[in-house]
From TrEMBL:
Bias (Low complexity) ranges: 181-197
Keywords (A to Z) from UniProt: Membrane, Transmembrane, Transmembrane helix
Coiled-coil stretches: none
InterPro entries cross-referenced by the UniProt entry: MS4A
Ranges where the record places region Disordered: 181-203
Organism of origin: Clavelina lepadiformis (Light-bulb sea squirt)
Protein name in the entry: Uncharacterized protein
TM stretches of this protein: 20-44, 56-76, 88-110, 122-142
Signal peptide positions (record): none
Length: 203
């Protein structure tokens, strides 16, 4: 019996990434926006240090974090990107939204206080800009995370919430071919008769 085994893998082709150009453009915008936030946060920190006041330095922290997310988005948006870069940019974008909400809440509250005490002052304008930049960065980061989520079904959340419908899972098909075995019919064997056995009765 001769048996031949053949394995055919139906999932060898890689699924192409989507939204790469949009991810790169948002990464560039986030890098520029994060730089502006960090610079304005540094100016506020210098102003507070001159008067001996304490500051949370939320502008510097949020700006640096958004810069990191933006630079990672630039690398994740290239044509030679990998699923690891997409997942890293996705996770950091979601984390950075928390920083942007903190920036929006804290600096918006300070800007409202300065608006009633010293409207039109330099600090009032800076805190107002930081609050606006925090809101804009929140929108951009949410958009980046959504684009990364739908970039590929292989992302950490694409397999559960953004995978295309009716896509069968990878399967391995085994084809077994068996050559039929033919059994020959045994031939009848005749036992030769000893010479002279039929003539014994006539002797």
């Amino acid at each position: 019996m001769v048996t031949q085994m053949q394995q055919i893998n139906m999932a060898t082709e890689q699924v192409p990434f989507k939204n790469l150009k949009a991810i790169m453009v948002l990464g560039i915008i986030e890098t520029v926006l994060g730089s502006l936030i960090a610079i304005l946060g540094a100016v506020v920190q210098v102003q507070y240090l001159q008067v001996g006041a304490l500051n949370l330095a939320e502008g510097i922290c949020c700006g640096i974090w958004i810069i990191i997310v933006g630079v990672l988005g630039i690398f994740a948006g290239r044509s030679q990107t990998t699923i690891s870069l997409i997942n890293a940019h996705l996770g950091l974008s979601i984390t950075a939204t928390i920083f942007s909400m903190v920036l929006l809440g804290v600096d918006g509250w300070v800007a409202s206080l300065l608006g009633s005490v010293a409207p039109g002052s330099a600090l009032h304008v800076i805190f107002s800009c930081l609050a606006i930049f925090g809101f804009i960065s929140f929108i951009l980061l949410i958009t980046s995370s959504a684009l990364c989520c739908s970039a590929s079904p292989n992302t950490c959340c694409g397999s559960c919430c953004c995978a295309p419908p009716n896509v069968p899972p990878p399967q391995t098909v085994q084809i077994v071919t068996q050559q039929p075995a033919y059994q020959s019919t045994p031939q009848s064997q005749m036992t030769p008769t000893q010479p002279g056995s039929y003539m014994d009765g006539y002797n």
